[in-house]
Design brief:
The complex is a heterodimer of chains A (about 400) and B (about 475). Chain A has two domains: about 180 residues, Rossmann fold (3-Layer(aba) Sandwich), CATH 3.40.50; about 130 residues, Rossmann fold, CATH 3.40.50. In chain A, the strands form four sheets. Chain A has a seven-stranded mixed sheet with strand order 5-4-6-7-9-8-14, sandwiched between helices. Chain A has a five-stranded mixed sheet with strand order 11-13-12-15-16, with helices on both faces. A two-stranded antiparallel sheet of chain A has the order 1-2. Chain A is α/β, with parallel strands linked by helices and about 400 residues long. Chain A is globular. Helix content of chain A is about 40%, strand content about 20%. With about 475 residues, chain B is α/β, with parallel strands linked by helices. Chain B has three domains: about 100 residues, no CATH class; about 325 residues, 3-Layer(aba) Sandwich (Rossmann fold), CATH 3.40.50.970; about 35 residues. The longest helix of chain B has 26 residues. Chain B is globular. Classes of the chains: A alpha/beta (about 400), B alpha/beta (about 475).
Chain lengths: ~400, ~475
């Protein structure tokens, strides 16, 4: 057990994303060519087939002159942002220290020098107000990306996000649209204290009119950023403080992911493990142990927090009949609670056991390192839960 | 300080341009009228709004040309703190929180519709004056009839603008149709001026299917994209930062237009008010913040809302040029807003206009103001300081209006309104499908499912579903 705990720190900080990539490549059929893919529920989505992306690093062993390029997650976010700003002059960024400072997590580094102070706007410290500002600009035709220095600070912007961002398209009878992207890092970091360890997806999930996505790899970070910017709806993009330095090789070709699709990380037969953001890595850590013990877990990174991709999730449930949800939200009222309800409502006939949801406890995140670690679901707990579920 | 100078050339250019006009009276009005009404606070030493740019200039001089500086005397000691140079003083003096003399109020026309012979202001043409007056009457009658309709139970809610007709119409008349209006809720007159028809007002209040808001908002929460009047949102002051964002958008596009954000005295307590003024100043956004200081926020008088000299003094606190104007004087409001608009657009800066007035009506149909204020106070303002009567006298003095015009207009508007209400009342309500559309651009499957579930329920229990609402 001790060995696993020791590994947690390193694994959580910089897991080898390449490994997960190659595993998914084996099982997903490569759909060639077209940029537009029609999903089986009839809705079109702009996505580059995963096969094509995997093709980019097909020769997994050789390192010389591989197609695609390596970068860190925060750089992937920036690349996506820059490509969209190049493509559409209406796209702009606003937030605290996003300009010359380049953003607290360097996501907007270099952009102010390239696009000017007006398009990459430094705002005074008033989250409700610069969110409101972004909404007003959006209603007038711009496509702002509003950066919260930390998701927790966006609690101050709740009024604008709930009462206006999500609502004005509806209450104006469709006359005004709000194509904003609200993004920022959240989740439990390394001893950042309770106020900087918030999981806002629980609080925002009820707001009608908004979409929520969570990125977890450089590949999906860039793809989701681009999709969010292109969406006509307000989108909240949840990043995680501890994932910014993840490295991965991503395609050189342009790609945009679907905002409403979940990602199959590891196909399997015995149990469906649903997770998102940082917990994906704890789950994959646990998956290694589980495979050694003879289990075959199917891991899905749900990515789309609102709405849930019940199509992908449903197919998985119908195959495995057992569901484990691993999230960083609090037990009460988190994404896991909603997901449990949604799955139960729709797929009760396919379940062989009650859904198990592993979440953080209903406590403020403590500063002390070991205590903080124990508020977050650890791989050992995931392994135990799967074992119990599969009895 | 270094950061100030490494900003893009654009902003530095603006600073250089603005520094001159900050310290000079506005170029658009004649010097005499500005110097007579120190409402722009240009000369008050207690308020250091000009201090920031003054010290910026001083800083530049020090940077560029230190040898030629006159040697500082002992009393002239100064320190270059972040933010600029400040002169030191050994005399401890606290700036008063409330001025000895309150900021003067810009006023052109007395209660008899007479203007001061010496004051100079841009004349209003007959056409504009007559339209202004007619719209003020229309607003009055609209308020009366819709209020009655609510009392009769025909609409659920209404809120009047009685006493604030001049602010509504005169400010709207000073704007161009390209200017974006972000209102609080007591500004339907602005929409009326721009061409929203009586039928459209009625449709929104009755929430029928012809409402361009598709029946989704409460009465009074009008919105019209084509008339550049952004849909009203109930929470106070949320439109203020949005106005800054809209102005930022106009600035990016270099449009010859500004944003006008309306709000009441109560809204100035909200955090959004302060942050918006601050943002607008820092971003040099072309937005006019127009405060209708009508003395009451439901039952809270301004004495319990803030302790400053009204709202006008808050502008300089954020570096914004501000003016106090008599809100019941249509000519003064018109002139002030026109000047403000010029400044906002040509100098790319925000302006604060505080229009003093009185809320003659109740806060809304859910309020009975006799519970917290004396009836004779209300009567004093309703009879004695009525903005509509005052303007009529001025228009009549110019020979542009008569008793006959008055009675003709009143009966015509009344008839049109009653007709509009009848039509609106009879019209179908929005269909069930409108419950689920426009939440997103394309309804997601979960909403589609919810709609199906609702439709099934209605099919199973048709007797519980209103027969006059289409599915």
């Amino acid at each position: 057990m001790a060995a696993i705990f020791q590994g947690i720190g390193a694994a959580a900080a910089l897991p080898s994303a390449k490994k997960f990539h190659s595993q998914s490549r084996r099982f997903v059929s490569a759909r060639k060519g077209s940029l537009f893919v029609v999903r089986s529920d009839g809705r079109p989505s702009l996505v580059l087939p995963r096969g094509a992306a995997a093709k980019a690093d097909a020769s997994a062993t050789s390192t010389a002159s591989k197609p695609g390029h390596e970068l860190l997650l925060f750089e992937a976010l920036r690349e996506g942002l820059e490509e969209e700003m190049d493509r559409d002059p209406l796209v702009c960024v606003m937030g605290e220290d996003v300009g010359h400072y380049g953003g607290s997590y360097k996501v907007t580094k270099g952009l102010a020098a390239k696009y000017g102070d007006l398009r990459v706007l430094d705002t005074p410290i008033a989250e409700n107000s610069f969110t409101g500002m972004g909404i007003g600009a959006a209603m007038t035709g711009l496509r702002p990306i509003i950066e919260g220095m930390n998701m927790g600070f966006l609690l101050l912007a709740f009024n604008q996000i709930s009462n206006n961002c999500g609502m004005l398209h509806y209450t104006s009878g469709g006359q005004f649209k709000i194509p904003v992207v609200i993004r920022g890092p959240g989740g439990v970091g390394r001893q950042l204290g309770a106020e900087h360890s918030q999981r806002l997806e629980s609080y925002f999930q009820s707001i009608p009119g908004i979409q929520m996505v969570a990125c977890s790899t450089p590949y999906n970070a860039k793809g989701l950023m681009k999709a969010a910017i292109r969406s006509e709806n307000p989108v909240i993009l949840f990043e995680h403080v501890l994932l910014y330095n993840l490295k991965e090789r991503i395609p050189d070709d342009e790609y945009v992911l679907s905002l409403e699709e979940a990602e199959m990380v590891r196909p399997g037969e015995h149990v469906t493990i649903l997770t998102y953001s940082r917990m994906r890595y704890h789950v994959m850590q646990a998956a290694k142990t589980l495979v050694n013990k003879g289990y075959d877990p199917e891991v899905i990174d749900i990515r789309s927090l609102k709405p849930f991709d019940l199509y992908t999730i449903g197919n998985s449930v119908k195959k495995t009949h057992r569901v484990l949800i691993v999230e960083e939200c609090m037990r009460t009222g988190g994404i896991g609670a909603s997901l449990t309800a949604a799955i139960t409502e729709n797929f009760i006939d396919y379940l062989d056991a009650p859904i198990v949801c592993l979440s953080s406890q209903d406590v403020p995140t403590p500063y002390a390192g070991t205590l903080e670690e124990w508020t977050v679901v650890q791989p050992a707990q995931i392994v135990t839960a799967v074992e119990q579920l599969c009895q | 300080m270094a950061a100030w100078f490494t900003r893009s050339g654009n902003i530095a250019h603006h600073v250089k341009r603005n520094m001159g006009s900050f310290l000079r009276p506005a170029p658009t009005l004649s010097d005499s009228s500005w110097s007579r009404s120190p409402a722009c606070l240009g000369n008050s030493p207690a308020l250091l709004w000009a201090g920031r740019l003054e010290s910026t200039r001083a800083q530049k001089l020090v940077d560029s040309d230190s040898e030629n500086d006159a040697p500082l005397r002992d009393d002239d000691q100064a320190i270059d703190f972040p933010g600029g140079r400040v002169m030191l003083t050994s005399e401890m003096q606290f700036i008063p929180g409330y001025p000895q003399q309150r900021v003067h109020c810009y006023h052109l026309m007395n209660n008899d519709g007479q203007t001061n012979m010496c004051s100079s202001f841009e004349q209003v043409s007959k056409e504009v004056a007559v339209k202004m007056y007619s719209d003020m009457i229309t607003l009055q009658i609209m308020d009366t009839i819709f209020y009655e309709a609510q009392r009769q139970g025909r609409i659920s809610f209404y809120l009047t603008s009685v006493g604030e007709e001049a602010i509504n119409i005169a400010s709207a008349a000073a704007l161009s149709p390209d200017d974006i209006v972000m209102a609080q809720y007591r500004e339907p007159g602005v929409l009326l001026w721009r061409g929203f028809t009586l039928q459209e007002f009625a449709n929104q209040c009755f929430g029928n299917k012809a409402d361009c808001g598709k029946g989704r908002q409460m009465p009074i929460h009008y919105g019209s994209k084509k008339l550049n009047y952004f849909t009203v949102s109930s929470p106070l002051a949320t439109q203020l930062p949005q106005a800054v964002g809209a102005a930022y958008s106009l600035k990016m596009d270099n449009k010859d237009a500004c944003v006008v954000a309306y709000f009441g005295d109560g809204s100035t307590s909200e955090g959004d008010f302060h942050a918006s003024l601050n943002f607008a100043a820092v971003m040099e956004a072309p937005v006019i913040f127009l405060c209708r200081n009508n003395g009451w926020a439901i039952s809270t008088p301004t004495s319990e809302q803030f302790r400053s000299d009204g709202i006008v003094v808050k502008g300089p606190a954020y570096g914004i040029q501000s003016i106090r104007v008599d809100g019941n004087d249509a000519l003064a409001v018109h002139n002030a807003v026109r000047a403000a608009r010029q400044m906002a657009i040509h100098e790319q800066r925000p302006i604060l206009v505080e229009a003093l007035t009185y809320r003659v009506g109740h806060h809304s149909t859910s309020d009975d103001s006799t519970k917290y204020r004396p009836v004779d106070e209300v009567k004093h303002w309703e009879m004695g300081q009525n903005p509509v009567n005052r303007f009529r006298k001025w228009v009549e003095r110019n020979g542009w209006w008569s008793e006959e015009d008055e009675s003709q207009l009143r009966s015509s508007i009344r008839k049109q309104l009653l007709q509009a209400i009848q039509v609106a009342e009879k019209m179908e309500k929005p269909p069930l499908a409108d419950l689920f559309s426009d939440v997103y651009d394309v309804p997601p499957s979960i909403l589609f499912e919810q709609e199906q579930q609702l439709r099934e329920t209605i099919k199973r229990h048709p007797q519980d579903y209103p027969s006059d609402v289409p599915v």
